[in-house]
Amino acid sequence: MTIEALRLDPAVVGVILAMAAVTYAAKAGGFWLLGHVDLSERAEAGIDVLPGAVVVAFVTPALADGGLPEWVAAAATLAVARKTGNLLVSLAVGVGVVAAARSVL
């Protein structure tokens, strides 16, 4: 591998930096805006459940197209989530179970 193969195109670097700046501005702007707006209890409740809704949006298509390993992992994830209440731990268990089930089944 030559050093030329590792050289980055300045246009690509510029696009990546621009995307990073826009992403940061969107997040920072959202935090700033929410700090200056009084939310109703209903809006706050909606924001509180948003992470779970995002997870469901990612998992549902995989379950719809998946087989037995995906359903076994979903059941394990649900059981761990109910037992621990920790989203990160339950997702890690789900990933581990689906990987193990795919290798066995």
Task: Supply database-style keywords.
single chain, 105 residues, mainly alpha, 2 domains, 82% helix
Rg (C-alpha, Å)? 21 Å
Distance between the termini: 40 Å
Number of helices: 4
Strand content: under 5%
Segments where pLDDT lies below 50 for 5+ residues? none
Compute the number of structural domains.
Answer: 2
- Element-by-element helix/strand order: HHHH
Described by the principal axes of the CA atoms, the overall outline is: flat
Q: How many beta strands in the DSSP annotation?
A: 0
SS class: mainly alpha
Main beta sheet strand tally, sense and closure: none
Mean pLDDT across residues: 89
Q: What percent of residues adopt helix (DSSP H or I)? A: over 70%
Topology overview:
Elements: H1 10-35, H2 41-65, H3 68-84, H4 87-104
Helix pairs in contact: 3-4
Question: What this model shows, in words?
Answer:
This protein is mostly helical and 105 residues long. It has 2 domains: 9-38; 50-105, no CATH class. It contains 4 helices and no strands. The chain has helices spanning 10-35, 41-65, 68-84, 87-104. Helix 3 runs antiparallel to helix 4. The longest helix has 26 residues, at 10-35. The protein is flat. The mean pLDDT is 89.
Summarize it.
The chain has helices at residues 10-35, 41-65, 68-84, 87-104.
